[in-house]
């Protein structure tokens, strides 16, 4: 398949589209990002790298970090992980307290905020230096030592974390948080503030396309059976309450972030990432979804 | 792969399990089915048929019929189909009015009762003889002319349809039902009362594994792009509020029914069906899910 | 107290107000009523009748009829009445299915539609000729034999009853409806279609102000202890999800209808009724509420 | 009326009842209170004091303090009070986040926890020394200078305040909290920890029965029009989701607390308080409700 031609065609089509979406503003620092940024990076197991646009520029990965945190939690000896967080789609906006209260403090899945906060709590209990180890893990799977956090975003989100604080206190009242509320929040916000480029994200996501192993090495980061489960959760829960729409239009497991990034994979084939800050009404990158829909349409390949 | 050996192994393991589930009782006639029935049928694109147990005995397919009805609706020139029914997982039990009221009469997806009732309404508007044409469609894709309905189940469900009547009236009050309430209910209940064996269901589901074409013929029933979308909806919405769990444990698109049947497919590989009447708390066949989990574990293959 | 002066003052103040409300339109026939109709009738135990405006013109009493139906149900030997319907405020719009589903088919109180439908079902089980006996009861307490129904409203509402049909079917699925769904709906719609003037309504409501007895006679219609309970339910549940606001601003037990009528009482003092068709966002007569607020402010009397 | 005889009769009847309720345990310190404590105090405008049992023993007034806080807020020049908190019954358990999220951070009324937390925030903005001034206000209307808080209860609740912290953070995220979250929580918990006897509570509640004035003095604490509104809110919202039941059975405005206390008033007649720690399923004192129901039955008087 001529991936370069397909990528070029997507670039051409999408570049002229004007997004009706809005750049995320609930974290003030995020709203400063230019809305016309647009990049895409495709990393194929068999044929390497293809990209266009701002694919080498770093952005705030935000909720995409939840996939890395879940992966680390599945590596930890945390037998109670899936007792403390379910694996069902939420059918509700991404930070709803309603469902959490109704279901006694057990989040629907690890990719809504509540679930990721439980995962953060669990990692704090298991890791010596949670922040450092998280960053090291991401750097390792992305093969890039310079990855770090955006301190302005980190500080900005810390000042606007009442909604997440409400979630953590609620779950603690149900006995589903072990550590100090502020520590859990701080670690969670730190993860969201990690900055990566489309290329770096695609390299990191290759482990989900490649059965848990680093490509072209002998290094098995995590068991294939666990990767399948993470991919299954991405498929059903990776896009807030638009998971069905994404599955319907794109047909790949993936995860979006309010920074405008989306990372997705085709098991055994490729990892692919896009970045365009304006979000649709459900909180996912509008042009990003369009790029990925075009990709599976033009390649004729989806997992279905 | 030695599928016969794998099927035998599943038969051995599951046959000794005792289900803690309960046979569906809300339709009295369904509760008469012996709870120890157990059958499985695997139909591979490359290597044909494998089965064990009661795989040739017909049972009430119930909600599995929703897949066939959706397929027919996607064949009809029904441009408004996905305006009248969404494609998102419900995150709620299978016949919830709560979500339907909150979302102004637009069902979350075509595989919950409300969604299937809208699909039925739409088919009534488009077909000359809805019941006959539905049956003919199922017979055609299953290559079996003798398929029909169980009249006792049909009559029994007609007498216990207040819940579904409530759904149809509510949607009609929102303007999302075009035809007479009783006619919509009658057609819907008729579809649920269709009886098929595991083998017949597996043959019918082959079109979803085989890109929309009847296997070993030139007959393309429905376009591959539409089959992908149906498979995507099965993946995210096929198991009521256990869709995530099924995706997590089994990793295949599929659909369950309260008669104890489950049909699933691996695109490009196989269609597989199981039947065991006792249902778990979420309304899915308990041993059926175990059979399918074993299948993807033993073959090492899932779509993820 | 110079009630005539107070009534004149209210007439003067309210007559110049322009309502921002909207005449009910969900029953087409109701929307034909001129929006500038305005009447008020005060009937004092000690000093008789005071009125202004269109107080002698009949209008559709709609949900005010629920008070009469509840009164008849409390007269019937219906021991299970308050097992089948609760007495708590709903905190939700007047015809919500959400709460009804969550609470297993037991309506929150007899003054929301669901509750009144259960009351209707119960009356059908206990009365020989429900419609005739209902009308006779209303005529008797209003001392007016000519009271009847508006047939155009009755027919119009019958053609737009899907929402209520949905409620009855849902409750029947929970076992909380004994009779035929259509019969329950028909009787309920019949009650709503009764037409009365402000004066007739005030005379009928005198039994609630006068401890259950017809004024100036020896005729005790219903025990004082039961009247107290009906008044308590009017206080907490008489105004859909604006019951608190009405209690806060007016401070009297009462009941509103979407025809623009409100009937209220001050125990031991008076019955008072108003009519003005435009409704506020919560479904209560906007100018009607203003009239009653002025009444308790100008008299300096409320039950609090 | 022979109130002493009535009080004696209630004492006799209720003393032999065994409560099936449970002493509140979510604040550990509260669970230490002996479950067989039982006291009642009736304070009549015309005829003075009547009591039985443990009516002179102090207990934790808990949510009854919400009435005092609301009264102070209505005295403050806080024009936005009823924009920041509604006056509708909640129809939901006492600390539900569901409704609060659905209604964008505006609590349903000032007597659920969320509403009282907004009132506390507002008082912090208006008062120099909130805690001292609150205590002084209660001492003044109860004519008792020795009233103070129970420090063990205060400390205990501070350690178990995650649920309330969740509420405050959620409302802050909606912009409905002005001050520091910890300061709001601290002041709220302080109010709940106030200890009073039935007698002291009855004296304090006399202002609500006596049109806002201290009895037998010229001192008008708060305007009669404001007292009416507070009483109206007590009537519709004073008993969590049992407000309708209390109105139905007792028929008086009142407020309960999880310490087992209930204070109620009959405008123009009396203030009455009861204390019995075991709570029914809705969080109200079981025997306390029975005492008050007997009181209005035996006196034949309720506001209805």
Task: Name some characteristics of this structure.
homotetramer; 304 residues; alpha+beta; Beta-lactamase; five-stranded antiparallel sheet; three-stranded antiparallel sheet; 46% helix; globular; acetylation (chains A, B, C, D); glutaminase activity (chains A, B, C, D); Beta-lactam/transpept-like (chains A, B, C, D); hydrolase (chains A, B, C, D)
Written overview of the protein:
4 copies of one chain form a homotetramer. Chain A has helices spanning 3-15, 65-75, 81-84, 97-102, 113-126, 130-142, 151-158, 162-173, 181-192, 198-209, 224-237, 243-249, 286-299, and strands spanning 39-44, 48-53, 59-60, 148-149, 194-196, 254-256, 261-266, 270-275. Chain A contains 13 helices and 8 strands. Helices cover 46% and strands 11% of the residues of chain A. Chain A is an alpha+beta fold and 304 residues long. In chain A, a hairpin with a 3-residue loop joins β1 and β2. The longest helix of chain A is centred in the middle third of the chain and has 14 residues, at 113-126. In chain A, the strands form 2 sheets. Chain A has a 5-stranded antiparallel beta sheet with strand order 2-1-8-7-6. Chain A folds into 2 domains: 3-61 and 195-299, Beta-lactamase; 63-192, DD-peptidase/beta-lactamase superfamily (Beta-lactamase, 3-Layer(aba) Sandwich). Chains in contact: A-B, A-D, B-C, C-D. Chains A, B, C, D: Homotetramer. Chains A, B, C, D: GO terms for molecular function: glutaminase activity. Chains A, B, C, D: Keywords: Acetylation, Hydrolase. Chains A, B, C, D: It holds the Pfam family Glutaminase. Chains A, B, C, D: Belongs to the glutaminase family.
């Amino acid at each position: 398949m001529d991936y370069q031609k397909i990528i070029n065609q997507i670039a051409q089509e999408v570049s002229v589209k004007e997004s009706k979406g809005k750049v995320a503003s609930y974290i003030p620092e995020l709203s400063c990002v230019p809305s016309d940024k647009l990049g895409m990076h495709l990393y194929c197991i068999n044929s390497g790298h293809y990209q266009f646009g701002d694919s080498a520029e770093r952005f705030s990965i935000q909720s995409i970090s939840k996939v890395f945190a879940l992966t680390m939690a599945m590596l930890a000896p945390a037998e109670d992980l899936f007792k403390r967080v379910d694996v069902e789609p939420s059918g509700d906006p991404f930070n709803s307290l309603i469902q959490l209260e109704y279901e006694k403090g057990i989040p629907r899945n690890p990719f809504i905020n509540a679930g990721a906060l439980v995962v953060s709590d669990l990692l704090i209990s298991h890791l010596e230096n949670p922040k450092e180890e998280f960053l090291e893990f991401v750097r390792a799977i992305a093969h890039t030592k310079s990855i770090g956090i955006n301190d302005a975003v980190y500080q900005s989100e810390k000042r606007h974390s009442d909604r997440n604080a409400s979630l953590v206190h609620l779950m603690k009242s149900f006995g589903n948080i072990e550590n100090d509320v502020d520590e859990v929040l701080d670690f969670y916000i730190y993860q969201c503030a990690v900055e990566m480029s489309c290329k770096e994200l695609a390299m990191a996501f290759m482990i989900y396309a490649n059965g848990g192993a680093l490509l072209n090495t002998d290094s098995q980061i995590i068991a294939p059976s666990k990767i399948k489960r993470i991919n299954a959760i991405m498929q059903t829960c990776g896009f807030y309450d638009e998971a069905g729409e994404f599955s319907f239009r794109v047909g790949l497991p993936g995860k979006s972030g309010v920074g405008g990034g989306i990372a997705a994979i085709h098991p055994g084939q490729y990892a692919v990432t896009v970045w365009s800050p304006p979000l649709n009404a459900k909180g996912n990158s509008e042009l990003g979804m369009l790029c990925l829909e075009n990709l599976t349409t033009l390649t004729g390949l989806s997992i279905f």
